Amino acid sequence: RELTVELGDRSYPIYIGQGILNQITEYFDRAKLSRKSPLLIVTDEEVAPLHLERVLTLLREGGYAVTACVVPAGETSKSLAQLEGIVSAALQAGLDRSSAIVALGGGVVGDLAGFAAASFMRGVRFVQIPTTILAHDSSVGGKVAVNHPMAKNIIGAFHQPEFVLFDIELLLTLPPRQVKAGLSEVIKHGLIWDAAFTQWCDDNAAKLLALDPEALSYALYIGCQVKAIVVSQDERENDLRAILNLGHTIGHALEAVAGYGELLHGEAIAIGMVGAAKLAQQFGYAEEIHEVTKGLFVKFGLPVQIPAHLDTDSIMSAMMHDKKFKEGTMVYIIPTEIGKVEIRKDVTEDQVRQIVELLKEES
Ligand code: NAD
Ligand code: ZN
Hints:
The protein has 363 residues and is an alpha/beta fold. It has helices at residues 24-30, 48-61, 80-92, 107-119, 135-138, 176-193, 195-203, 205-209, 213-233, 248-258, 265-282, 287-299, 312-321, 349-359, and strands spanning 2-5, 12-17, 39-44, 66-71, 100-105, 125-130, 143-148, 151-158, 163-167, 325-326, 329-337, 340-348. Helix content is 46%, strand content 20%. A 7-stranded mixed beta sheet has the order 1-2-9-6-5-3-4, sandwiched between helices. NAD(+) binds at residues 107-111, 131-132, 143, 152.
């Protein structure tokens, strides 16, 4: 399957399929990447032993000069320190303005390598080879960033890749918890945009969880497509792009309070999406939205309640810290029916606090 992210002269293709990594040099050739300039692959310590050798071999057999830079796995690698490491590797490998940096990994590697590509020599070309389901989201849209100890994704840029090569065979080594968390973001793309796809996810949960190739490539295709449509209409997040944040207001706060790692991003936003559905109920929208949303996440084995030990005040102050509130109200994405959301600007702190309380597990 193939689709295009339409962004004028920065448009780029996303290739999704089983075993397509074998044609990697053809995709590089199609993007007119140069065999004369060295390539740098960025990956992490968990992905490297599983998939790096194969990618290096395929590219070298195809005549590309390529070296790799391996960073530790996990969110802490989205740092200026790791960025410096990548720049050192790029300089040692002799990268020049016609070179490309290739991200082989999940969203962490994608964001880090992408920011390296955006800033090294004021910008070199960038290729994404996602290895997580969640990366169907992070690899589309061109947002790249590293974290500062005080704030996530605060040092970043917009830098679109040349193409995204999504071989679902690379996903077969994912731990089950990462599979579920990645599917949470796929489901989100249904909930904000496409009722029929939401129903399809519900019907095909077992297949998706078992990484059935046909079901998975279809789901990733639709997920990428929804993101691509939204991003093409609003690359810089002036308005529409905000709908992608469904579940993220509470989700980000939960990640921050729980500590990254205890709750995965996909898990935190599943809880957040159930919260948004509860809020929709309070604004008078159909009760069915909440039932369907919660039912879906339960079916996918994702959490739908806030762990009892996370304190409501801390969650609320994490949202404040995120500068979500402006004069007592905040912008909030709430579902108005399955497959549709609205951007509300009148949600009050009290309303959000009430939702957080409602989401709490009985302790
Ligand atoms: P991740 O990159 O940390 O990957 C999760 C874990 O799975 C890691 O431990 C990794 O080593 C391991 N892993 C990756 N691929 C594997 C494979 N094929 N087999 C076995 N293990 C594998 O996390 P993620 O969930 O992919 O991405 C989260 C990041 O994405 C966050 O930093 C978030 O901010 C970012 N993100 C960015 C955007 C964007 O628009 N740029 C959007 C959403 C999320
Ligand atoms: Zn997200």
